[in-house]
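[Automated response] Your request has been received and processed.

Submitted sequence:
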Amino acid sequence: MNTQDQVCCPELDVEKWDKKSFTWDKKPFIKESIPTFFHMPLVIMIDKKTKKLGALARKANANILDMDEALLLFHDSSTFKSEIYYTVTRKVKGAHNTTLSGTFVAGVFDGPYDAVPKFMKKMNKHLSRDGKKAKDYYVHYAYCPKCAVKFGHNYIILFAKV
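Generated structure:
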């Protein structure tokens, strides 16, 4: 891809993520909480928190070098609070360091941000066909709004912890 044409998000390789299973053993992340209103985060808060996480990771030289592997996961802990998990390569001084462990089944969906509950229902059907059940969900929004327009898709990856 010509870097001149790139807005900011790498083009998602759907085949790499869709209907794939990943086993994470203490996969490192740094985490921030943001307020939400009925699961809908304020856009300005997402921007502020992701910039903070990115700056902390850069300062610690802990960013994932392969942008295709970098994840920014959202996890709704309640109706009015969400957590943002930013993948890093190691612990980051001054950040809330955490890890995720377990088996996660990923599913890629294309649609508006507010369709996540519908996508979760589809994912639950897919999992049940394989005799699995989601214990929890983490969501990766592959593109910012500008890149969604550029690429003509609004990909969302659901990571179901099974």
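Summary generated for your ticket: The domain at 18-161 is CATH 3.20.80.10 (Multidrug-efflux Transporter 1 Regulator Bmrr; Chain A). The beta strands are 20-37, 40-41, 72-78, 81-87, 96-110, 136-141, 155-161.
If you did not submit this request, please reply to this message.
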